[in-house]
Design brief:
It is a single chain. With 232 residues, this protein is of the alpha/beta class. The chain has one domain: Rossmann fold (3-Layer(aba) Sandwich), CATH 3.40.50. It has eight helices and ten strands. The strands form two sheets. The protein has an eight-stranded mixed β-sheet, sandwiched between helices. It is globular and about 45 Å long. The two termini are 24 Å apart. It binds NADP nicotinamide-adenine-dinucleotide phosphate.
Length: 232
Amino acid sequence: MDNKDLVRHYIGEVINHKNIAAKGTAMKIGIIGAGNMGTTLGDLWIAAGHDVLYGTRASNPTSNLRARPIAEACALSDFLVLAVNYWTIESALREMGDLTGKIILDISNPFALKAGATDKHNPANFERVLPLNQTALDRNRAFTPQAVWVKAFCSLPGKVMRETHHQTPHIAIPYTAADSHAADLLSILITDAGFDPVYAGGLDKTADIELLGKLSMQPMTKAKMLELMKQA
Ligand SMILES: NC(=O)c1ccc[n+]([C@@H]2O[C@H](COP(=O)([O-])OP(=O)(O)OC[C@H]3O[C@@H](n4cnc5c(N)ncnc54)[C@H](OP(=O)(O)O)[C@@H]3O)[C@@H](O)[C@H]2O)c1
């Protein structure tokens, strides 16, 4: 299926995968990085019945019973989520083990702490560290091209996602993917997290959904997002 077919396949579709775990199809999800975004997504997927493990560093002991060494969490999981800070992604990928054929969801935006800043909770301390014509995904998948990359959950602040999941009407989460199986799984996981999945296109459309892209920043419904996508 090429990108255009995928767009046709996903735009306007109604996905009805509610309570997927009850249907006996829980996914094994390995979330690398148990911080703000990692635990936000993890909590939502655990509530939907998925099996979630967190890959954490030995230097960051946690009482979370789901925490595992990074390589173990990856080996035991079918769907990986890269939820570490942007500036530690290369080293995290090295610790994740053999990623050949593994699906990796990249949620990152190319922003890093300004020199001398330490407070990760103050948005003013962050600056964009890639040229505007390059996405975080371009850079990250160049480190591990043997994996199957998909992108989502980068378009809105974590705080907004925590406040709006399962809201009526649902908030849309745009995603990009080049592999139809990985796209299907991601679409299910977006639905199970309490949002409406909107396929924004192949990986070449990722700039639209990363922070500052035309589908980012403002929480909106699927109808509004599809309207925006029609505009050139
Ligand atoms: N925050 C948002 O609103 C938001 C929204 C959309 C997308 N994102 C993206 O989500 C990603 C995570 O952001 P965040 O806000 O969740 O950051 P965060 O709260 O600082 O959490 C990052 C977590 O990753 C851990 N970590 C760092 N390097 C690691 C490694 N090599 N292996 C394992 N764990 C590692 C950190 O542990 P330590 O504490 O020990 O360093 C921390 O627990 C970023 O790529 C960001 O661009 C964030």
